[in-house]
Input
Amino acid sequence: MGTWWPIAVWLARAGPQVASPAVLGRVGRALRAPVVPVGVAAVLLAAIGPAAAAARIRSGFVSLSGLPSGTGSPHLQDQTALFLKHRFKPDLFGQPAESTESPRLGVTIRRDGFGVPDINGKTSYDVWFGAGYAMAQDRLFQLELFRRATTGHLAEILGKDYVAMDAQVRRDFYTRAELDAQLARLPAPLRARFQSITDGINAWIAETRSDPSKLPGEFPAVGDVPADWTPEDSAAIGVYLARTVPSDDGEELDNVRALRALGPRLFNRLLPLRTRGQVATIPRSSGLFPSQPGRTRKQEHAAFKRSQAFALSLPLPETNSANGGGGGTAAAARRLPLIGALGRHGGSNMWAIRRRGHSATFWNGPQLGFQIPELFIELELHGPGLDVRGTTAPGVPVIGIGHNAHVAWGLTSGLTDDDDLYAEQLAGPESYFFRGQRLDMSCHDEAIMYRSPPSDILGGHPPDSGTKTVRLCRTIHGPVQVRGGDVAYARRYAIWKHEIGTLVGLADVNSARSVKDVNRAAAKLTWNENLMAADDRGHIG
Output
């Protein structure tokens, strides 16, 4: 099941007839927080009692007033019947409203029969204020989880088990000052959106403070209350998604272990350098990517042998915290789930067909799995220079997949290896050699606080809280992932400190009037996603 985007010549302001962005299938690496909602669900089951837990299961993230009665959102399962019959809900602009509210002068939020907010604003500020307000109404605890997961502060509400995850995020992502610097480089109109959506989220948080019954039940269950939202929180979510969802990386040391366990011949059969009969996305005739491991098969074979020799000489760590690999011995390597590591067939999909009569049909099936709530939220936005409907991650001020009055577009993850692991020759505990020079790493200590949630007490476990200090280092190539012998392994990300630039391209896609406009906007994208679009003149691309 996916998102159906037929484009017709009668588009005008009404927009194309589309279906709800259903998300199925493979979660991939999205937020690495699929484990977080599961953990929170366990907390709730223990902390808020049977009736409240039943409400949590049925309704997702709900207000306190809904927990005792076992009621929650009426929209959790209201598309199930459509899904089972392979049908789609209407997604034209201006669906009939079942409720209307105005959180501030200049902002109107109408919700259709499926609860999708249609936000109208007199100014751009009003539109994105309304978007933030509606996001917080529907997904406040999810916003809190996203904020903590993408900045390394989950252990503060979920306990010691999340210290390692927090350390990894703080190691591989950015400080608040670095996020500020990335925000400062954005065009002024997009930078203003971050403040607008922040103000909207904080307006709803203020309402939960004056009326605690509006606070989602998960907050007291984990002993937390939402702090004020900041533009940096939204930036952290955008950066995290741009870096992790579209990529498939971090397997280098596991590959070395597999090579040692299997030998070159079997290794190349399981993980071939070339797949016979494969159809390339970009044909050789385009000439855009002439670089190959070897100009001839003989040269390629020689290069592969040199790579094997180098890989076999590397000292491996006992455990591979860079990518979750096993131990450093051949015996441990033999226990690696090699077949599972090859991955499963399937994934997201999209296609576009140009039709007679200057129209087009477009389909996008982003496979993101089942979650409560979903990873993305659906919005309709209308304001000066903006008429768009689609999905985005809560807290992010652009529409990722959707349509406006002229263009429909979609995304699938590239899932290519767009970063590299560097073996740094150590010259000391926190120094290394680079091009014959001895350089110092950039290192600092991070204090990671942890605290057991209230459910631990109800489960008979003594409360546990404290602080763990971890030492984090970077080389000229990037964050140090792990050490083995006299080598430190540092990861170099292709879009390091440029992730947020993707939002510049997506903002331009949101207001595109043709496929040509989408192509120009795509040049600004920095992430590893496939983008496809169709417009109301029948153009596809």
Q: What stands out?
A: The first helix runs from residue 35 to 47. The chain has three domains: 80-244+347-416+497-535, 246-274+297-312, 421-493. Residues 2 and 137 are 26 Å apart (CA to CA).
